[in-house]
Amino acid sequence: MSIPIGKGRRGRRSYANYKPPSRKTGPSNDPFRIILYLVLIVMGIWVYRNPERVKQWLTDQMPAETPVAADLAGQATASPQTGSFGVQAEQAYENGHLDEAVELYRKAADAEPNNVDYHFQVARLLIFQSDMQYGSKRSDTLQAALQAADRTILANPERPEGYAIMGKALDWNSRPEEGASQILRALEIDPNFALGHSYLAEVFVDQTRWDQAQESIAKAIELDPNNVDVRRDYGYILESLGDYASAAIQYEAALQDHPNLGYIRMALGRTYRTAGRYQEALDQFFAIAAIEPQNAMIPFEIGRTYETHVGDPVSAFQYYERSIELDATYASPWLRTGILYYTQGNYLQAIPALEQALKLDVQTVDVYYRLGLSYANEGQCMEALPHLQKAQEMAEEDERILDAVQMGFEICEYQPEELTAAP
Q: Which long-range contacts (CB under 8 A, 24 or more apart) does 372-379 make?
């Protein structure tokens, strides 16, 4: 509790304000001090009323951000804006959103046309994106990959990435001989470029040069064992050799650091399915569906697994219908739906499904003879006969199909006249 100081009592002297008695202080109403205070007050009011201009001025005075290194080899640098595109693209890729990643890498490449790494990533991701596509869309994506690969070479012809990814793109466009030539050129530039050896191994498989494929992939694994592309290509090689257990191990290794890559999960799911590990296959397909819920290929693969491996046609129908809902121009679920109905003897429902598959350019002997027999069994022989004749032409010496076609002809020969007459 403080003790009040009486009016006549002096307080303790504060040495903080002590001044020697011989020094005279200036008057409290110094005009210069008053002017300084007025200036500071005016400046404070201006700052208060113009915060955005102050913020902009401070931003302009700050040093620029540190440039972002290129993603693949670190040889080129990017502006802050370009770097942010690259970072966002990598995040989209890690999340399994290849469409978004491709567009962001394109923006980064447009901003820095001489940056090899951005062009390389565009071409690379387009190739893998095509693995989750079908029909004309897949063909268009692979053509775009060739163009991106060409831009990768133009960005710096002295680096190996452009020739390597061009070789891979050519191989995926069914031009393996040209692909091998491009990749070998990349390896002339850098004999220790792991992706070059990995991509070359894939080309060798497509050329059925098995020993060379195994030598190339072994070199790639030695150089970069943790690279996702190397592991994916190794899995593809083993799968092509029929070693599904070992292929699955490689795909699993690729997914350890990149669990959201749908194209690798798709390869793993199909490998599991071929190896008879049906539930594990379904688990992979369901995982992809969570990443790409609008991709019609995924419910089709689920339906295919239920139909041909699990033996559950009810579930198969459900997923085929879901696939058609997502993309009515996707021929495969129409075909499988038609075949399922045909196998069950439900010819009335088989007919529209098989007709739709035919319209979507699935012109195989299996479609023609099943469609012909479906019409024949429904008594629509005028519609049946052209399909049966086409199947007969395409069957060559396949006795199974020829017998089925003959059955259709016999059915129509014994139909009442009113059913075989033209409408």
A: 372/405, 372/408, 373/342, 373/347, 373/404, 373/405, 373/407, 373/408, 373/411, 374/342, 374/347, 374/350, 375/347, 375/351, 376/408, 376/411, 376/412, 377/347, 377/411, 378/347, 378/348, 378/351, 379/415, 379/419
Judged on CB neighbours under 10 Å (0-12, 13-18, 19+), 242 is: exposed
H/E stretch holding 381: helix 381-395
Q: Which residues pair with 77 in a beta bridge?
A: 69
pTM exceeds cut of 0.70: yes
CA atoms of 98 and 121, how far apart (whole Å): 11
Nearest to 371 by CA among 337, 399, 347: 347
Strand-pairing partners, residue 68, are 78
Cα angle for residues 88, 91, 97 (degrees, 5° grid):
100
Block means of pLDDT (10 residues each) for the chain, length 423 residues?
A: 36 36 48 60 61 52 38 40 83 96 97 96 98 96 98 98 98 98 98 98 97 98 97 98 98 96 98 97 98 97 96 97 98 98 97 98 96 97 96 92 94 60 46
* Residues facing 78 on adjacent strands: 68
Which helix (DSSP H) or strand (DSSP E) does residue 69 occupy? strand 68-69
Taking a C-beta distance cutoff of 8 angstroms, is the pair 72, 121 a contact? yes
Cα separation, 326 vs 318, in Å, equals: 13
Structure tokens at 368: 């023609």
Q: Are 221 and 201 in contact (CB under 8 A)?
A: no
5: left (phi over 0), alpha (psi -120 to 50) or beta: beta
Residues 167, 179: Cα–Cα separation, whole Å: 4
Task: Return the H-helix or E-strand segment holding 155.
Answer: helix 135-155
